[in-house]
Amino acid sequence: MTLTLLSWVPGPLLAQIAGQPAAAPTTTQNVLSVVLALAALVAFVVLAVFLFNYGKLWLQAYTSNAPVNPFTMVFMSLRQVQPRIIIDALIQAKQAGVGSDPATGITTRRLEAHYLAGGNVQRVISAIIAAHRADIDLDFDRAAAIDLAGRDVLDAVKTSVYPKVIDCPDPLKSPKTTLSAVAKNGVELKVRALVTVRTNLHQLIGGATEETIIARVGEGIITAIGSAADHQQVMENPDRISKAVLNRELDAHTAFEIVSIDIADIDIGENIGARLQADQAEADTRKAQALAEQRRANAIAREQEMKAEVALKRGEVVLAEAEVPRAIAEAFRKGNLTTLPRG
């Protein structure tokens, strides 16, 4: 064992240890020394560059119980990935106690893949942590899919925890501030509703948005008022509108779950039925007048036709009277008619 260790000691150093004068270094030994010095210099430069660029980040990850291979950070930079974003997200997940499963959990490779796909890594991790704290089932794959679908996953989780209120109709997207519906007795009611919704994370991808919820709720309110026999019934019990709308399951195939529908304001508008009846009566009057005028015009036309017929008959009588003298003269010429002598 001693001989084996001594075989790795340079000759001059071994001679000094044995108390003998050192031999002059050879050319091979000089080259080897230069190579070793250059290798040590290169290693020192590489180590200095690594410590300058990644040392603080690597130490932060190591002390945060999220150790990362130093070469992994170098390869991240080569793949055009910002190591700071990936490491911060990993540290945040580890400290929050989420994504610990090595197969389906949060790893640097999966974070890099989501980053290269154009996703927002920080918001995905924040959403997973918020969902974990609120006891909502949300894994990394679903959160990443929601983020890549163009939805704000963190806002969706917050809406699941704290439901938000939507105005129906939305004053920012509609020129009208109320919904107009007419009961069976013809009285118009103007209604403004508040719809409380929470995000349905399982249907967030491909589910309809707030505009669909507003349109469906508006349609349901108009239908509920239109089916009421009298507007006073709606005024006395506005909750009948909410119950009728909620029973229709308007949140099907949407990204939200309707918690409640509250009638914030309800006012009486015009008496549409009376106005329509008045308009109908006026239209009937105009129609009758038009028919009477038509009959009058027909009578006048018929009178003129009769007058023309009388004039025609008179002309025929005159022609007939003109034929009498001619016939008498013809009879005289032919001797068919003679005059009787007087006395």
Automatic annotation (TrEMBL):
The chain crosses the membrane at residues 31-52. Homooligomerizes. HAMAP family: FloA. InterPro entries: FloA. GO terms for cellular component: membrane raft; plasma membrane. Keywords: Cell membrane, Membrane, Transmembrane, Transmembrane helix. It comes from the Bacteria. It is found in: Cell membrane; Membrane raft. Belongs to the flotillin-like FloA family. This is Flotillin-like protein FloA. The keyword Transmembrane applies. Found in functional membrane microdomains (FMM) that may be equivalent to eukaryotic membrane rafts FMMs are highly dynamic and increase in number as cells age. Flotillins are thought to be important factors in membrane fluidity. Pfam families: FloA. It is a single-pass membrane protein.
